Amino acid sequence: MNRTRVAVALAGLIGTAASVCAQSPTAPTFSTDVAPILYANCTNCHRPGEIGPMPLVSFADARPWAKAIANRVTDGTMPPWHADPAHGQFLNDRRLSDKDRDTIVKWASAGAPEGNRADLPKPPLFADGWQMGEPDTIYAMQEDYAIPASGTIEYKNFEVPTNLTEDRWAQAIEIRPGNRSVVHHVIVYLIDPKPARVPQPFTPAPGMRRPADAPKTEHGAEANDRPMKHQPTGWLSGYAPGQSVRVYQPGTALRVPAGATLIIQEHYTAIGKETTDRTRIGVKWAKETPKVPVDVATLQNANFVLPAGASDTRVDAELTLKEDTTVWSILPHTHMRGKKWEVTATYPDGRSELILNVPKYDFNWQTDYIFKQPLNLPKGTKIRTSAWYDNSAANKANPDPKKDVYWGDQTWEEMQFTAITFSTDTAAAKTATGGQKQ
Questions:
Q1: Chain segment 277-296, per-residue pLDDT in tens
Q2: For residue 247, which phi and psi values (nearest 5 degrees)?
Q3: What is the DSSP letter of 222?
């Protein structure tokens, strides 16, 4: 009798344990669950030679960083994305899904198991040295430019001929500094040898120039040995931390005119030792003339002062559209004191809409926010950009909270600058009728 009861009790316990085991999910493993997430979202930057501070391609790469990875994805700092999802949807949204985030956290909490190596997917193939894939054409500075160990370095301008015999259309552009440690940012301008006198399709608001009584911008001790010799006629692309590649949607592209010359404008920052840089620009060309030619407009307000110690100074810039316009992307830019951005469209009927909200702007991760559905804005719409700055000691990145700050090129100065990728029906019609060669 007693033996029977014991046997029944044991059977019950075994059954209960089996039921619990059946209901307990197996911990995620690197090979099966985590590697696909990293390959899809992280290894573009976290691989040898790229901007990520450590590679995350293999289990050996990722295992020592498991808890740090979990912490970063939990607090939303990785992958870096700063636009408020309540205002707009974006093609290049880097946020992880809740499911993927949960998988990484559970993996780290379970001790970051490797799993069966046979289940590991093949790592993604990257073109050596290029995030966008192998370019069709590579343009490079024609020298290894020497960067001094110290001092203020004026913007350096390097002209590079394209040698194009006909107009071409850039589908994707990537800027690759030769030495990221000294490159603050790069802007690549175009010089069209036969520029057409086309009026801009917008009117900037008055009063946005740097005030005449503002202190003169600080310059380096030496005369600039690479000044801008020729004025640009257009914009090709830009590089800043976190933003090096621009891929245009199918059917759209940016014109690079026949015979064009590139101006590679470099903002270098000394790092305490002498070094060199040779920046390259990779271009993938569209296979045919696009239905929609795009262009880049810049909106900026240099008429401001950020008082010493002020933690919440707002600076606005505004333009008015002179014709119906499609906005494809918006890239806001400030320096070390920028903390927040908003972009608002006010329509001709008086209705206003917040089209981009960046509540925690990060100078170290600047993004060209590409709208999933391009914004069709009617003639008369006003686009207002608003930036907030923290010039107080509470801002740990602040170079000097005891100084009033004005517009200037250098990192310790400030900017209120926005690049807007746009198109108009007028430009599309001109291209469709042969107004521009391929």
A1: 999 999 999 999 999 999 99
A2: -110, 125
A3: S
Instruction: Report the pLDDT value the prediction gives residue 60, as an integer from 0 to 100.
Output: 96
Q: What is the pLDDT of residue 4?
A: 43
Q: How is residue 166 written in tokens?
A: 């006909």
In a domain, 217, yes or no: yes
Q: What is the DSSP string of 55-102?
A: --SSHHHHGGGHHHHHHHHHHTTTTT--S-TTS--BTT--PPPHHHHH
Q: Where is pLDDT greater, at 337 or 430?
A: 337
* β-sheet bridge partners, residue 246: 173
Q: How far apart are CA 193 and CA 299, in angstroms?
A: 25
What distance in Å separates the CA atoms of residue 422 and residue 431, rounded to the nearest whole number?
15
**309 Ramachandran zone, left/alpha/beta (phi>0; psi -120 to 50):** left
Higher pLDDT among residues 59 and 197, named by residue: 59
Q: Which domain holds residue 12?
A: 2-119
pLDDT value of position 2: 44
Taking the alpha carbons at both ends of the chain, their separation in whole angstroms is: 95
pLDDT at position 126: 78
For residue 140, the cross-strand partners are: 280
Looking at the structure of the chain, the number of domains it has is 2
The answer to whether position 130 is within a domain reads no
- Contacts (Cβ under 8 Å, ≥6 apart) of 416: 300, 301, 302, 304, 315, 317, 334, 385, 387, 407
Q: Is the pLDDT reported for residue 94 higher than 80?
A: yes
Query: Which tokens is 209 given?
Result: 């120039």
Would you say the pTM of this structure is higher than 0.90?
no
Show the tokens assigned to 361.
């702007």
Helix (H, G, I), strand (E, B) or coil at 4: helix
Based on the fold, state whether residues 273 and 390 are members of the same structural domain: yes
